[in-house]
Amino acid sequence: MGFRFFKRIQLAPGISINLSRSGVSASLGPRGAKVTLGPRGIRKTVGLPGTGMYYTTHSSWKSKKKTPPPSPEEASAAEEESAAEEPQLALGFFDRLVTPENEENFIDGLRAFLEGELEKALDFFSRSPECPDGAFVGGIIALRLERFAEAADLLCRALDDVDKFGSLFDRYEIELDIALPVTDEVELHITRPSRRAAMLALVEAYQALGDYDGTLDLLQELYEEDPGDSMVRVSLAEILLELSAGAPNEAELLRQIAGLADGVEPESSAGQALLDYRKLAGERLRKLGR
Question: Which residues pair with 26 in a beta bridge?
Fold first, then answer.
């Protein structure tokens, strides 16, 4: 799981330059569907409108020619430029006199995170679990630290007050990019708190805790809300396959897995994964004589 703050400079409609700690890249394409060309290869992006999320698929350059490393002067200049673009998250003495405590903890937590002090950042976010933005980011950081019970608790608290999601992000003009790996090639990026993003992060926490019933309930709810989300279908197929072995309703669960692959094409990694799961489900159904 990765985190980063970034800034995007718009050059023209559909064309922008992205500045981040990892370097400079160029994006081409309309909002919600982009191809990013950078030193590490090609990244295809598919946005999920209204969710504050997008998926990325990575592929390296076909050419074996390696990108030369930047000179020390270039690296230093890029570092300074990237640092200058990071949000300013300092509250002065007089600001603290009138700023609510949960908001102070949110700002202090983000500043600690930017300084690489994840344990300290999580401590700040955990102090104000009633602040949904803070509980959300704290839950994600707890996931990264593999403190899964804390992650689940904070994300559940965040989901209790989804109507306030994004209020502090908007107030301080924060743009956060949180990457959750789905497969070796695909990442889910979360750019701001949302109910769906919190539920997907909670799926990760429940899976790590071995709470398969909770995981299944969340995935089924996510699938019912948006059956077209291919990565949710992959995750649902995976958990159904795990739960089906030896279950009294094994054949029914296997047929559900097969149905999740209806209409998919093998061109994408998600589509290929679903077809693979359908093949496995079909083989087990044949062994059961179904």
Answer: 17, 37
Maximum alpha-carbon separation in the chain: 74
The pLDDT, as a whole number, for residue 273 is 85
pLDDT < 50: residue spans in the chain: 1-12, 14-15, 19, 21, 28-34, 36-37, 39, 61-67, 74-75, 77-87, 93-94
The count of C-alpha atoms lying within 13 angstroms of the C-alpha of 34, restricted to the half-sphere facing its C-beta, is 22
* 56 strand-pairing partners: 45, 187
- The single-letter DSSP state of residue 163 is G
Q: How far is CA 240 from the centre of its chain?
A: 22
Contacts of 106 (CB under 8 A, 6+ apart): 124, 125, 128, 131, 133, 134, 137, 168
Instruction: Answer left, alpha or beta for residue 113, where phi above 0 means left and psi between -120 and 50 means alpha.
Output: alpha
Query: For the stretch 18-30, what's the b/e string if a residue is b when 16 or more beta carbons lie within 10 angstroms of its beta carbon?
Result: bbbeebebebeee
